[in-house]
Amino acid sequence: MRKKRSTGRTIAFNDNQPCLLLLSQRPYGILRILDDQSTFPQATDQTFLQKCHYHHVSNPLYCKPKMPLPEFSIKHYAGKVTYQIVADEFREHTKEVQRTSLGKLQGPGRRYQPPTVAAKFSHSLFELMEKMAKCNSFFVRCLKPNRTKEPNLFELEMMSSQLRYSGIFETIRIRKDGYPIRLFFSTFLSRYKLLTGIQNLKQTDHNNCIVILRALCEHSPGELYQIGITRVFLKERLYLVLERRRERLITQAATTLQKHIRAYQTQRRYADLRKKVILLQAQVRGFQCRRRYQCLRRGLIRFRATVLMYLNRKKYLKVNATFHVNLFLQGTTFDQIS
């Protein structure tokens, strides 16, 4: 199937709808035939196989075996799969259902008919689709690295077949060729307007989205992006480029903000430390000045005492010499005075 774009180009991808109709379309889908055959008392595996051959032998997705084997094949998007009609896997389940259904009546003269495996599968699939439509689904695909489940053993062929049959390769190819990123105008502007530095942009104006894309992308519309009625459609390559630019700008802004915050914190710590250092220096210098003052004061006191002692001694000697001179002049000795 091909999906058309506004540029005239087409994206080729596998459409699984014919295969789904082959399996579940009323009234002759394979699962529908299986349900009908499960309710007929005289139905067998061969009657189920004959009806499948009769209704679908002309279908290009249905393959009838060349030999009379109890099997048929269906060409899925990833390859051809062969199915056996012998119900070996459900013999125990059939016995359990028969035991539980004994004695139960569905109506007058009719016994209780338990739901078939195909009906349960269809019902569970319908419930799953309803739940998926109500939420954002994320799938975790588990792959077996080897057939023996041994550690440190990687089989490339087995991994490739699992990726192919699970649709990973097809999904990657479709995402590469199409526009998998679909953003509303408001979401696109809120995420990427910071890359251009343009201010005062309306959040729902598609012209602003065009301005931003032309400023950020050298390609013309239709190559890497499309503008819809309410959304912007981006290719994976352009989306990754925009995200890297946005992440780089946000990282740069965060780094700048951290730089200024750290500078402010460092300046505050420096100012507090400077005050404490100045106060400590003042205390130390005051203590040193007081010690020098005390030492100088004691030295001055000793010097003053020494000077006074010298002067008093000199004065005393002078007085004493004068006294002896006077005694000598008077002819009196010191012994006579005593």
TrEMBL record:
InterPro entries the record matches: IQ_motif_EF-hand-BS, Kinesin_motor_dom_sf, Myosin_head_motor_dom-like, P-loop_NTPase, Unconventional_Myosin_ATPase
SMART domains for this protein: IQ, MYSc
GO CC annotation terms, alphabetical: myosin complex
Keywords tagged on the record: Actin-binding, ATP-binding, Motor protein, Myosin, Nucleotide-binding
Domain Myosin motor positions: 1-247
SUPFAM superfamilies recorded: P-loop containing nucleoside triphosphate hydrolases
Gene Ontology MF terms in the entry: actin binding; ATP binding; cytoskeletal motor activity
Transmembrane segments: none
Keyword ATP-binding among UniProt keywords: yes
Keyword Repressor: no
Segments for region (Actin-binding): 125-147
Family: Belongs to the TRAFAC class myosin-kinesin ATPase superfamily. Myosin family.
Protein name: Myosin motor domain-containing protein
Annotated organism of origin: Eptatretus burgeri
